[in-house]
Carbohydrate sulfotransferase 1
Amino acid sequence: MECSWKTVLLLVCASLGVQYTAIRTLRDSLSGPCQGAYRCQTRHHRVCLEGGDGAASDLPDESWCPKKCGALNLTLASMSCLSKGHVAIKTVRVPEVGDLRTLTEDPRLDLKIIHLVRDPRAILASRMMAFSDQFRAWKIWNATGRQPRYVDLSQITSTCKDMAASAETGLQRPAWLRGRYLLVRYEDLAFNPKDRASEIYRFVGLEMEDRVQMWIAKNTNSNVSSPSEWNYRYSTTRDSRATAESWRLRLGFDIVRTVQNLCNDTLALLGYKQVHSAAELRNLSHSLVEHRTFQPLT
Ligand SMILES: *[C@@H]1O[C@H](CO)[C@@H](O)[C@H](O)[C@H]1NC(C)=O
Ligand SMILES: *[C@@H]1O[C@H](CO)[C@@H](O)[C@H](O)[C@H]1NC(C)=O
Ligand SMILES: *[C@@H]1O[C@H](CO)[C@@H](O)[C@H](O)[C@H]1NC(C)=O
Ligand SMILES: *[C@@H]1O[C@H](CO)[C@@H](O)[C@H](O)[C@H]1NC(C)=O
Ligand SMILES: *[C@@H]1O[C@H](CO)[C@@H](O)[C@H](O)[C@H]1NC(C)=O
């Protein structure tokens, strides 16, 4: 896994009082320069101390975190989180869902895992925009249409492997994950935020309040639901569907083809279609997301 602010364990609100030992074990098992870099004390306090207000307030810009926050004080974090009935941890640093087995088996916890996956081609496009320095070779490739010799293909390859490994584990329904694993495709969430969100709330056993629905409507433009109402070119609001598909207009076909070759198994497993021409890539009327249901386990 690469090291960046996105890969830092982002604790929205963690019940570290009981989870502390297990989490530390998990953290110790992670390698790489980010190790132990728990961020966002300030944000953590804001989120936790404001209690249930999280959904109503604006989603914080995540790039804000590493600038503003020092290391997280685990003692303080556990104190404020212990007072909550439900806690959520968002993390991008768990390579494989199997690494969480200890936590799912801990009788003090009732851990549920929501595994969010995304089309690896979109992940690459998004990383190229967000981390232009690290992705300079890719950007040159995208701009010139010629693959530089020094382009690093290993990162996207391992991203795909990790994603597939976790999904395979989860979908095989081992006993220790039963009722605790939900696979969610980012695209499904983006195309149909309300229904997918309800599904997630049901899965974790929470009631979806009106203000959550309102937040979704406001922030995803999901109110406009019929395809004929979409207009990619003139859309000025930040709508989730257009965002999810924008990679198709931003990546050269040559790059897309390379990622498809590196990640073909992952694409097939998660129901993402390959494209075979630039025209097919750019034709947004042609969906690349196969209809799939990854049933929540009960
Ligand atoms: C964390 O916060 C507690 C309570 O304020 C304090 O006693 C402790 O020294 C802090 N730990 C660190 C590592 O800053
Ligand atoms: C959704 O659309 C309907 C009709 O187009 C409108 O009456 C309603 O106010 C909209 N809701 C939101 C949250 O924008
Ligand atoms: C790739 O190049 C196109 C122009 O050919 C540009 O519009 C697009 O933003 C570039 N994509 C990325 C991810 O840099
Ligand atoms: C992916 O590509 C490899 C190597 O070309 C091939 O062996 C494998 O069958 C492909 N998998 C799928 C799902 O197409
Ligand atoms: C775009 O895709 C749609 C749906 O697959 C297809 O009907 C249409 O002919 C395609 N348009 C072009 C210009 O290829």
